[in-house]
Amino acid sequence: MRWGSVCACSCVCVCVCVCTYVYVRWVCVRV
User: Fold this and answer.
1) Contact call for residues 25 and 14 (beta carbons, < 8 A)
2) pTM summary value
3) What's the distance, CA 13 to chain centroid?
4) For residues 10 and 19, is the Cβ–Cβ distance under 8 A?
5) In the prediction, which pLDDT does 13 show?
C-alpha cells in the first residue's frame, strides 16, 4: 500500500520508510 499524499517524506513510503517517520508516524510506524 502506497500513501502518496499521506506520506510526504522524501523516500518511497510503503509503511517501511526510514525517513521522517516521526512526521508520518501515523502511517509509517514500522521501519
Assistant:
1) no
2) 0.11
3) 4
4) yes
5) 53
Give the chain's radius of gyration (CA, Å): 7
Q: Which 8-state DSSP code applies to residue 22?
A: T
What are the pLDDT digits (tens) for 1-31?
A: 444 555 555 555 555 555 555 544 555 544 4
Segments making up each domain of the chain, as ranges: 1-31
Burial 1-31 (b: 16+ CB within 10 A, else e): eeeeeebebeeebeeebebebeebeebbeee
Which residue type does 31 have? V
pLDDT of residue 1: 43
- Report phi then psi at 9, rounded to 5: -85, 170
